[in-house]
Write a sequence for this structure.
């Protein structure tokens, strides 16, 4: 039986509402966020915590930013407002410190009555988990997402349509973004190869020597676990028969092991892409989770190339 190793503890994304939050809106926001975070695969990098603060109702986003700073809650947060129910979009608000840094480097439109320009992003809720990760640990800033070329950022811009899209339940668009779980396979559930071509394929950037071997689940073991077999570098020499092997594999988007229960899978609203022509959602990033599979791009994967010297573990 394939054993899944525990995932990393997800980061909590705090969300507040400027209006009384109806149960159906609360549920809709969580559903959209869970679609974008791939929560059905039980390994989200981010989870949304919606907090009902009656004292925030009717306040501006800037006032909420200042009040949270006074409470020593200085991190970014999300705002649900009166447009969220219809638009399926929320506002991502950066820290005060980042607001000041962005203002220094990218002078925005300012309003005398406001303490400082608030930098925030109107974003489809399904896209929020991805961009939250990019903005907090990636190599982009909010200025990359909200500033039109040659035009100063305006904090009062309604940012319509919102950034991102609502198609994160579409396999063909986002399957490559799925996390790759770490699993332990028992003898008989894995196979290995020392084919030089396969060893090079799993090490495309060559930051270190090619692994001495590659391993993957057998097709039957992968199917039973809700995974797709894919070659993974094995750096501990050559795997020994009769021993368990640790490896990363790929989730099977269509497997009944990962039902859509608890999330909305049939969003019928029109897909709207970002209005910012200079910004394309990246499909090649710096983490394992975000990087597209080099094996898939080279023709491996569900209909992957079979090496002539593949050995099944017994």
């Amino acid at each position: 039986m394939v054993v899944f190793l525990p995932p990393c503890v997800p980061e909590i994304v705090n969300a507040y509402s400027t209006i009384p939050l109806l149960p159906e809106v609360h549920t809709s926001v969580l559903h959209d966020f869970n679609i974008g975070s791939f929560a059905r695969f039980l390994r989200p990098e981010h989870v949304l915590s919606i907090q009902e603060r009656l004292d925030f109702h009717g306040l501006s986003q800037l006032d909420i930013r200042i009040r949270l700073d006074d409470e020593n809650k200085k991190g970014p947060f999300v705002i649900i407002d009166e447009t969220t129910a219809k638009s399926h979009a929320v506002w991502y608000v950066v820290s005060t410190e980042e607001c000041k840094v962005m203002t220094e480097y990218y002078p925005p439109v300012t309003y005398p009555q406001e303490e400082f320009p608030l930098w925030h992003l109107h974003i489809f809720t399904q896209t929020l988990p991805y961009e939250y990760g990019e903005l907090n640990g990636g190599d982009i800033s909010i200025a990359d997402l909200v500033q039109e070329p040659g035009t100063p950022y305006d904090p009062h811009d309604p940012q319509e349509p919102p950034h991102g899209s609502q198609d994160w339940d579409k396999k063909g668009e986002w399957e490559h973004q799925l996390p790759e779980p770490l699993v332990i396979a028992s003898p008989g559930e894995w196979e290995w190869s020392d084919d030089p071509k396969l060893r090079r394929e799993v090490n495309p950037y060559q930051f270190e020597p090619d692994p001495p071997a590659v391993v993957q689940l057998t097709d039957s073991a992968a199917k039973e676990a809700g995974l797709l077999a894919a070659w993974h570098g094995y750096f501990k020499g050559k795997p020994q028969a009769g021993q368990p092997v640790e490896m990363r594999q790929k989730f099977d988007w269509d497997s009944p092991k990962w039902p859509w229960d608890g999330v909305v899978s049939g969003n019928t609203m029109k897909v709207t892409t970002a209005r910012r022509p200079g910004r394309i959602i990246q499909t090649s990033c710096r983490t394992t989770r975000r990087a597209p599979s080099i094996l898939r791009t080279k023709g491996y994967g569900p209909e992957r190339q079979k090496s002539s010297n593949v050995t099944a573990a017994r």
Summary: Residues 264-308 have pLDDT under 50 and may be disordered. The longest strand covers residues 11-17. Residues 212 and 237 are 6 Å apart (CA to CA). Residues 23-36 form the longest helix (14 residues).
